[in-house]
Amino acid sequence: MSSNDSIVFLFDVDNTLIDNDRFSADLAARLESELGADGRARYADIDKTIRAEVGYADYLGALQRLRGQESSPSYMSLSFFLLDYPFDERRFPGVPEAIAHLRTIGRPVIMSDGDTVFQPRKIRRAGLWDAFHGDVLIYVHKEDMLDDMRRQYPADHYVMVDDKPRILVAMKKLMGDAVTTVFVKQGHYAAAAGKELEETPPDITIDSVAELAAMRREEFVAAA
To answer: 117 and 37 in one domain?
Structure first.
């Protein structure tokens, strides 16, 4: 960026802009269809292990590790399922309209956790790469990369839109009044929200990103 935007809107992807819980359910069903209940369970165990190792979901890596030395059409079928999944059909209603509105008062930017292959493809398949004009950041732990984010997208004020209480709390503690935290009450992370949001409550709470299309710039800044 060549100059400061007065306000930058930072968006999480999974369960904020797209229904990733639905994708996870579809993947589990496909795994069981291709590999049986045991195969689905083994994939889930590998997925959990990899998340602990690298800090994010690596769907293709988990499939690769599950395959091991085997060769079966089922693994290729699962690969096609992942790479060709219709994420555009899992985008929540009102997302394009909300992004278009926010672009009139600031700069919308995706700030997501994930790998460097599947997560970008997911974002593009969902139509979000174009909606955000290619303004996409993908980190291992985005809350640890705020200096890099600010270097790439300097602004007077930031708005973080996320369904994960942990991220919103970390951002608020690190950035203070320079950020407005927006809690989107969607998905399993939001449903499990508890004590952390009582101690550090979000500045704004919404049921869906579509609600942002009706908000004015002053509301975001004043909320911080």
So the answer is: no
For the entire predicted model, the pTM comes to 0.90
Residue 15 sits in the same domain as residue 25: no
Measure Cα distances from 3 to 7, 103, 106, 175 in Å.
Answer: 12, 16, 13, 20
Examine the domain organization and report whether 206 and 132 are in the same domain: yes
Question: Which two structure tokens, joined as six digits, stand for 134?
Answer: 């290619």
List pLDDT tens digits, range 89-103: 999 999 999 999 999
Q: How many domains is the chain partitioned into structurally?
A: 2
- Can you give the residue range of the structural domain that contains 194? 5-19+91-223
pLDDT bin (cut points 50, 70, 90) of residue 55 is confident
CB-neighbour burial class of residue 119 (10 A; exposed 0-12, middle 13-18, buried 19+): buried
Do 77 and 98 lie in one domain? The reply is no
Residue 3 in this model has a pLDDT that exceeds 60:
no
Neighbours of 142 (CB within 10 A): 23
DSSP-derived pairing of the beta strands 136-139 and 155-162: unpaired
CA gap 24, 87 in Å, rounded: 12
